[in-house]
DNA sequence: TTTATCATCACCCTAAAGTGTGAAAAACCA
DNA sequence: TGGTTTTTCACACTTTAGGGTGATGATAAA
């Protein structure tokens, strides 16, 4: 799964530094925004999975406003990457629901941790219904095929292999074959584990 | 809100350092554990809201085991605080669902951020929990016994009968026996159906 | 056109799950 | 104390699930 990260940072040197770190680790960079408005433009036009967000853009705390927007309107998870760690800034930041908070100067790996862990956290939140193919594929490196997903949906309904075969008009061997691939891709060994992953 | 933090760290100097930082910021320290077993003792006896967890305890990665336990059994949120940020350690750590990951050496404020942000995140995660015994019994005429509920909880975690037997310190036949009764009371035929009923 | 990938299925085999019966301690309660 | 429920376990048995290998036609990409 290839994440797309948006970098919102008014200092070009730092922004570039972050971009390099991402690219080195195979993380796609959806763009760099040097201001609040540029960030909004990119959010409208690009596919963004995670945002690294500087609190201070220019002279004001536009980062906090953008953070609030990300959480409430765009539903895109983000980490703050900022020089400030005083308690008033931190309190303000916490209220915007970031998934991470990195204080500058940072190390190369810190960026990676923010993105990966922050994204993990965002995946843990929503549940309850049978996930879509897109949601499922975010959890695994090698995505499911459409037919594999069909089988997964039936498993989520609590059906046995025989019942799934009847529902999809294929043989039970075919169902088993798809399930084998599903388990392999999720790196699990049973449908029970699959159910707890997807519904739990 | 006065948080209670457990520090799991095998180096006394670092552990003390973290303790001082917490106390300076009005965060209560539930205790310091220098080993896996000490950590388990403290988790049983103390009220703990958040855990700062070193991955390497002594010579092995007991921190990861403890992290898994915290997430699956204790339901206590935690951050790793470790010297390691290589990708294999990170991958292993991510699979245990930490709410933060801090690489040593850290700054004073980093500790505070981990605790506050990590705890914030845990509050947002109103996750789809394993239902309580009361909730479960609302769905069926003949209620489950406490031991049957214990088995049900393990099933909800995706465990196999053998794993459940080990977790509850009984034989696999006993687990099967309880499961038989559970299925009968729910009028179902498989654990998959049980999982979709409870989690779906 | 050649190469992948996907969807389908068969066959065989092992492991795990589930069923039926029965039974003996332990805990609970009246 | 005596009866009931719970918890524990055994053994034998059937069914289902899961793993390995391999093969086919179809479709898609290069």
Helix and strand run of chain A:
EHEHEHEHEHHHHHH
- The average pLDDT value of chain A, as a whole number, equals 90
Class of secondary structure makeup of chain A: alpha/beta
Please report the number of helical segments of chain A: 10
* Overall body shape of chain A: elongated
Q: Ends of chain A: how far apart?
A: 22 Å
Overview of this protein structure:
Two copies of one chain form a homodimer. Chain A is an alpha/beta fold and 200 residues long. Chain A folds into two domains: 4-119, Response regulator (Rossmann fold, 3-Layer(aba) Sandwich); 126-199, Winged helix-like DNA-binding domain superfamily/Winged helix DNA-binding domain (Arc Repressor Mutant, subunit A). Helices cover 56% and strands 12% of the residues of chain A. The first copy, chain A, contains ten helices and five strands; from the N terminus they run E-H-E-H-E-H-E-H-E-H-H-H-H-H-H. A five-stranded parallel beta sheet of chain A has the order 2-1-3-4-5, with helices on both faces. In chain A, strand 3, helix 3 and strand 4 (78-82) form a beta-alpha-beta unit. In chain A, helix 7 (146-156) packs across helix 9 (172-186). Chain A is elongated, with a radius of gyration of 20 Å. The mean pLDDT of chain A is 90. Chain A binds chain B through residues 85, 90, 94, 97-101, 103, 107, 109-110, 112-113, 116-117, 120-121, 124-125, 127-128, 130, 155-160, 188, 190-197, 199-200, and chain B through 85, 90, 94, 97-101, 103, 107, 109-110, 112-113, 116-117, 120-121, 124-125, 127-128, 130, 155-160, 188, 190-197, 199-200. The first copy, chain A, binds a DNA duplex (30 and 30 nucleotides) through helix 7 and helix 9.
